[in-house]
Amino acid sequence: MQLVELGVTNFRSLADVPGIPIHKQTILTGHNDCGKTAMLDAIAFLLGERQIEDSDVSRFASVGRERSALPAIGDDGEPRTVIVEGKFELSEAEVELLDTSSPVSVRRRYVEGQGSRLEWQTSVPERLELRTLPALKVADLRDLATEFDLKLREGQANVKASWYDLLEEHAASAAHVTDWIEAPPQLRNALPQLLYFKGDSADSPEAVVRGILTAKLREYTLLEDTRQKITDLETEFAERLKEDAAILRKLVEERCALDEFSLEPQIQFKPTIDRVPLAASAHGQHPVPLSAAGAGRSRRITLALWEASQQLLSGGTEGAEANVIIVYDEPDTHLDYDHQRRIMEMIKASASTSHSTVIVATHSLNLIDGVDIQDIVHLNSRDGRAYIQSLGASDTDAHTRRFLSNMAASLGFRNSVLLHEKCFVAVEGATEYAALPTLFKLAFGYPIQSAGIALWACGGNDGALNFAKFLKEHKRTVVFMVDADSPRDKQKEFSYDRLLKQGFTKDDCLFIGDPHELEDVFSSDQWADTMNEHWPRKDEKPWASQDIEALRLDGKFSKKLHNLLYEHSTQAPRHKDEMVVAMAQRLRRPSDVPKSLVDVFKDAVKIAATAGPHYWAEED
Fold it and tell me: Looking at residue 49, what is its pLDDT?
């Protein structure tokens, strides 16, 4: 089971935070006390690795959505409730084991005074009585069967098993709804293991070792032969406890004058490492327990253990399908930049394995800069309540720029300090500025900012060229991405002479066009499809690729294409600049982006990979 989304209600500052995306590698950012640690602890609660304490319950709700789950302080109404819900992708084996489809929603719900309960959302009979058949006594089963006008078939014995089978068969064909019910044991066992590493001094090397080895120990319990032995032990001890449970049940019924008191012990062996005493010695010295060693040695050993855990957990155990969620809370605490980079490499390696997910809460720019911005979840708070900001697959370039700006402001940095603006690329105008980020994201699967590229519409005017000169003088990398025919046909807006005056050459240009301009790179079939979608003909005939192909023979293709639309469509765009934007939004697959344009993007990515602020010599 791989966690892909999280929702939290009434847990500390996370009063109502749905839809938190969880990627294979997720970086949580935000100012202090915005909910980063709360989110990590909520995951631990969901996976059964921590209990709810009174201090965990939010105290914000007085009106609105949370009111039904969390009364205001001093309200003697309904008990307060904490809910942590996760969406999990399942493997083929897990789909078969749980007899369900992927993804599946699982939640752990804590109700004040009643404890916590693990539930999953699945298809269940609409009638509540049909959902709890195993817990009913034979008389109740018989009465329920009578209510549904069900009778035992000829030859069936009048015993509990017969009535149960009859009602279970009826439940399978009865009306069903999707609802939350208690999770079955096989789902509990399939939940990912959690490794929770803290960056502060409280996370001792002993705790790190215990966490790593416990994860491996539980992984071994998933081996088929080991799992069967544990199941046999659970069954054996459950049988041994039956008589003891019956005595307790009978005594409670007698002493409390109850008609019935249900007491069904459920046995589950969950092995853990109890203690791991550690000692270390330098050359020529006696071993010293780490509890008596200095903080510096313990910190170095903890970092080494984190790195070792990646190797130990990366391969998995053959025959054991175990997912693990590795959580780091401020792992960069008290570490220099070199050690922060080591942690980033360790995190990337851990996240690259098929069965692991890594979640990191951090303020470190080294860690933030080392991931795709789509893998960043930024937490902010308003009046003490946390909310999230993140980028989704459908977000536009404008969304990306707003996200980066808000994150920078929250962390107290200017946007450029986030190090995503490694290479500034000047494009000719608003068309390229709007269309190229969309085409880049479709081709590569991530925003253009993730490649360290910052676009701006240059237009060739002197103000924009002066800005480009300013950036270059301040040791920033600047290139121009322009139509191939610009030096020849746009002398007023763009020429090598104008570039030379600002300190640029032809080598600072990336040329788009096959052969002349951006509009040329798209096929006639693509143009016909876009035109039929956005600008149908007045005579209701469909546009055909032959109509467009004929325009490529000579002259300015984009101008002739716009004239054709203006002549034959009442919905034609007023300006030809709108055509490429519509085309970019119409394409659906990475392969739809023309190869010549992808090649230019690749050149820009290569430039950005080695770009960024450069060292200033003393004489500069």
Answer: 87
Which of 404, 304, 313 is CA-nearest to residue 358? 313
Listed residue (488, 467, 468) closest to 478, CA to CA = 468
Measure the CA–CA gap between 16 and 60, rounded to whole angstroms: 10
Task: Categorize the per-residue pLDDT at 292 as very low, low, confident or very high, splitting at 50, 70 and 90.
Answer: low
Residue type at 380 in one-letter notation: N
What is the C-alpha to C-alpha distance for residues 324 and 162, in angstroms, rounded to an integer?
A: 42
What burial class does residue 121 get, using C-beta atoms within 10 Å of its C-beta: 0-12 exposed, 13-18 middle, 19+ buried?
middle
Phi and psi, residue 551, nearest 5°: -80, -10
Considering just the CA atoms, what is the radius of gyration of the chain in Å?
Answer: 32
Burial class for 225, CB neighbours closer than 10 Å (0-12, 13-18, 19+): exposed
Q: Which residue has the tokens 């990979």?
A: 609
Q: Which residues lie below 8 Å from residue 479, measured CB to CB, with a gap of 6+?
A: 423, 424, 425, 426, 508, 509, 510, 604, 607
pLDDT at 410 over 70: no
- Residue among 447, 492, 450, 501 at smallest CA distance from 472: 501
Give residue for tokens 């989304």.
5
In angstroms, rounded to a whole number, what is the distance separating the alpha carbons of residues 444 and 602? 10
In this predicted structure, the answer to whether residue 416 has a pLDDT above a threshold of 50 is no
For helices 577-586 and 524-534, give the axis angle rounded to 10 degrees: 100
Q: How confident is the model at residue 143 (pLDDT cuts 50, 70, 90)?
A: confident
Mean pLDDT for the chain? Answer: 79
Given a contact cutoff of 8 angstroms between Cβ atoms, the answer to whether 361 and 332 are in contact is no
pLDDT of residue 417: 41
DSSP 294: -
> Could you give the angle at which helices 160-173 and 138-147 cross, rounded to 10 degrees?
40
Of residues 439 and 231, the one with the higher pLDDT is: 439
User: Which residues fall within 8 angstroms of residue 216, CB to CB, at 6 or more apart?
Assistant: 312, 313, 317
Q: Which of 87, 72, 76 is nearest to 120 (CA)?
A: 87
Tell me which long-range contacts 529-536 makes (C-beta under 8 A, separation of at least 24): 529/586, 530/579, 530/582, 530/583, 530/586, 531/565, 531/569, 533/586, 534/571, 534/573, 534/582, 534/586, 535/565, 535/569, 535/571, 535/572, 535/573, 536/569, 536/571
What are 323-350's pLDDT values in tens digits? 888 888 887 665 666 666 667 777 777 7
Question: Does the global pTM surpass 0.90?
Answer: no
Q: Which of 432, 429, 437, 369 is nearest to 404 (CA)?
A: 369
Q: Taking the alpha carbons of 513, 518, 522, 523 in that order, is the dihedral positive or negative?
A: negative
End-to-end CA distance of the chain: 56
In three-state form (DSSP H/G/I as H, E/B as E, the rest C), the secondary structure along 26-90 is: EEEECCCCCCHHHHHHHHHHHCCCCCCCHHHECCCCCCCHHHHCCCCCCCCCCCCEEEEEEEEEC
Model confidence at 168: pLDDT above 90:
no
- Determine the length of the chain: 620
Helix orientation angle between 430-444 and 595-609, rounded to the nearest 10 degrees: 90
- Please list, in sequence order, all residues whose beta carbon lies within 8 angstroms of the beta carbon of residue 29, skipping any fewer than 6 positions away: 36, 362, 363, 368, 376, 377, 378, 379, 407, 410, 411
Strands (DSSP E) contained in 76-175 are: 81-89, 104-111, 115-125
Looking at the predicted structure, is the pLDDT value of residue 64 above 50? no
* pLDDT at residue 265, rounded to an integer: 77
Residue 379 DSSP SS3: strand
Phi (first) and psi of residue 155, to 5 degrees: 95, -15
The residue behind tokens 């915005």 is 34
